[in-house]
Design goal:
With about 450 residues, the protein is α+β, with helices and mostly antiparallel strands. About 30% of the residues lie in helices and about 25% in strands. The protein has ten helices and 21 strands.
Length: about 450
């Protein structure tokens, strides 16, 4: 870390990011509100004291705004070129060692959850060391997961390479998946490290930007082992009694929070015996407390601070960026749009749709395809709100309205779905049946009485 800081001081600006790279403390990324650095602790958790120190550093050297990403990483926003080195030094003083190179991810309750088939952390550490020592030129966003199972397993999180524990006697057997596809390869820890490294080498042979999807798909060999299907992972929001510890999961609305808002929550948690903070896919904070911990007081405090405390909260179903409130590139108040969607188009909130609200065409909160995206775009030379179906924020919209008409357009679309959805039909199936033309017509309908026209 010292070398990175010295480089920053010498050049006056952080090193340029390689295209497709993930922003780090050593190489932050320019965004609409300054530089952004992503932090993933090598240990997989923050001590509560270190997390409080990190909040102080985010305010001192950035804007004090933080994000939790869809994969459970922490992002510190609003940095300046001259504040990156002091932030790195503050992180080091807090005892936080950032993960460097290709991260090998594990479930957020790894090592705590008695329902997991195996603790994935030892295997993950060995595999990370082998990848780092290989010297291979790999895509910065190459995703590797070692999943021991449990309540918050990572079946729903995409990866280039995934090792998944399955039941066996007397020891768990690890199964290899490549680009989400089972390979039929399974075995012990040592055998699967070699199998995974073979895939890593195959990917590297296709070039430094290659991903597992670039490899040819191979048929399963006859008689190969299969991985049993398991129930979907639980929401990370809620109370988890793990025997030796109790974990409380809460989520900042749309994954974004201000340091001065989260600080009183962490301080109160420490007073109740919380020792560690973990971050989870699904943009959640997990507070690790003592056995038998009664979390009711902290849940009430979290709710009063604006955190999501119920697993069924529709805010968890929407990916939304910081918007104009936290990013100079944002052209709309994305949180207001998302809140209007929840309040005035409940027919769309049944959980069947991937929903995205973006302040600009970059679509930072959700780079992948969404079923329905609301994005800021120009409309007749004025600020507007567009709807994109089955695409990304920068794709061609099916309809665009002036921004002041956005609330009524959202409400009209929600009413159209509510009026036409058939018994037992999901919102996703209803939109599929309606088709782009009728969806565009509903969204483009003129304003009418009875609809809240509050500006976005």
């Amino acid at each position: 870390m010292r070398g990175d800081a010295e480089t920053t001081r010498a050049t006056g600006s952080p090193p340029a990011l390689r295209r497709g790279a993930c922003p780090t403390l050593a190489a932050p990324m320019q965004t609409g509100d300054g530089l952004l650095a992503r932090l993933r602790p090598a240990s997989g958790f923050f001590t509560a004291a270190a997390f409080l120190d990190l909040l102080d550093a985010a305010e001192a050297f950035g804007s004090g705004r933080l994000d939790i990403t869809a994969r459970g990483n922490l992002q510190i926003r609003g940095l300046r070129a001259e504040s990156v080195a002091p932030l790195s030094a503050a992180v080091a003083r807090a005892g936080i060692v950032p993960c460097e190179g290709i991260a090998v991810e594990v479930p957020p309750l790894a090592g705590l959850d008695p329902s997991e088939w195996a603790d994935p952390r030892p295997l993950a550490r060995k595999l990370a060391e082998r990848i780092a020592d290989s010297g291979l030129d790999l895509a910065p966003k190459l995703a590797v997961i070692v999943d021991g199972g449990g309540r918050l397993h990572l079946d729903g999180v995409a990866a280039d390479i995934k090792l998944v524990a399955g039941a066996a006697d007397p020891r768990p057997v690890w199964h290899l998946l490549v680009a989400g596809r089972p390979t039929g390869v399974s075995g012990s820890v040592d055998a699967m490290i070699e199998a995974a490294m073979s895939v890593v080498a195959d990917i590297a042979a296709y070039g430094s930007a290659a991903r597992a999807r670039d490899l040819p798909a191979e048929p399963l060999p006859p008689g190969s082992s299969s991985l049993a299907l398991r129930e979907a992972a639980m929401s990370p929001v809620g109370r988890f009694d793990l025997g030796a510890s109790v974990v409380l999961g809460v989520a900042p609305a749309f994954g974004q929070m201000a340091a001065h808002i989260v600080r009183p929550l962490i301080l109160a948690a420490v007073a109740e015996g919380v020792s560690a903070v973990r971050l989870a896919p699904g943009r959640a904070i997990l507070l690790v407390g003592p056995a038998g911990w009664n979390t009711s007081v902290l849940v009430s405090l979290a709710a009063s601070l604006g955190f999501v405390v119920h697993a069924g909260d529709p805010a968890l179903r929407i990916d939304a960026c910081a918007g104009q409130a936290g990013c100079a590139s944002g052209r709309i108040d994305t949180h207001a749009v998302a809140s209007h969607l929840i309040a005035h188009a409940p027919a769309l909130m049944d959980g069947s749709l991937d929903l995205h609200v973006s302040g600009c065409a970059k679509g930072c909160a959700r780079p992948r395809v969404a079923d329905l995206t609301l994005v800021a775009m120009s409309c007749d030379g004025r600020p507007g709100l567009s709807i994109v179906l089955g695409g990304r924020a920068g794709d061609s919209p099916v309809a665009t309205k002036r921004l002041e008409d956005g609330p009524s357009a959202i409400t009209a679309l929600g009413q159209r779905v509510a009026e036409t959805v058939e018994k037992g039909e999901s919102a996703a199936a209803c939109l599929q049946r309606l088709g782009p033309a009728r969806i565009a017509a509903a969204f483009s309908a003129a304003r009418f009485n009875g609809i809240d026209h509050a500006g976005l």
